[in-house]
Amino acid sequence: MKDIEFQLNSTDIHPDSEIKGSIFVSYPGRYDGVVINTQILDSNEHIIYKSYNGKKISQNVSRLFINKDVMPENKAEFTAVISFIPKQEHEIKFRVSIIEQHKEIESQIIFAKYFI
């Protein structure tokens, strides 16, 4: 089993549809939390994270750090949205990483498609 498992509710994403993801960490060492970086390829647009573990995010953030202290049983769930109307299909790269003392320990990448 990997030290980090990451899943999305769907890899087909449409404008203003809710994106849901879940993360499970089984890393045996100490770690500070996880970070989710998302890149919409061939675009200057961003994803906006709306909540994690049921807690709403008040600012528009395009990179999300979730502290281990708010990850019961080493699990985290998040919601996000992309609002711009694409003129073409875009590939989205989701990268979730375990962070320990400002260093990346392990990561997992999932690619999704963004289209109308």
Assembly status: single chain
**CA-CA gap between termini:** 36 Å
Helical segment tally? Answer: 0
Profile the largest sheet.
Answer: 5 strands, antiparallel
Shape: globular
- The residue-averaged pLDDT reads 94
Helix/sheet category: mainly beta
Radius of gyration: 14 Å
Order of helices and strands: EEEEEEEEEE
The stretches of 5 or more residues where confidence is low (pLDDT under 50) are: none
Percent of residues in helices comes to under 10%
Total strands: the figure is 10
Report the sheet-strand fraction.
Answer: over 45%
Strand order of the largest sheet: 1-3-8-5-6
Describe the structure.
A hairpin with a 2-residue loop joins strand 5 and strand 6. This protein is globular. The strands form two sheets. Strands 1-3-8-5-6 form a five-stranded antiparallel sheet, with no helix packed on it. A five-stranded mixed sheet has the order 2-10-9-4-7, with no helix packed on it. It contains no helices and ten strands. 0% of the residues lie in helices and 59% in strands.
What's the SSE blueprint?
Layout lengths: L3 E5 L3 E2 L5 E7 L7 E8 L7 E5 L2 E7 L1 E5 L7 E7 L8 E11 L2 E12 L2
Parallel strand pairs: 2-10
Antiparallel strand pairs: 1-3, 3-8, 4-7, 4-9, 5-6, 5-8, 9-10
What's the gist of this structure?
The chain has 116 residues and is mostly beta strands.
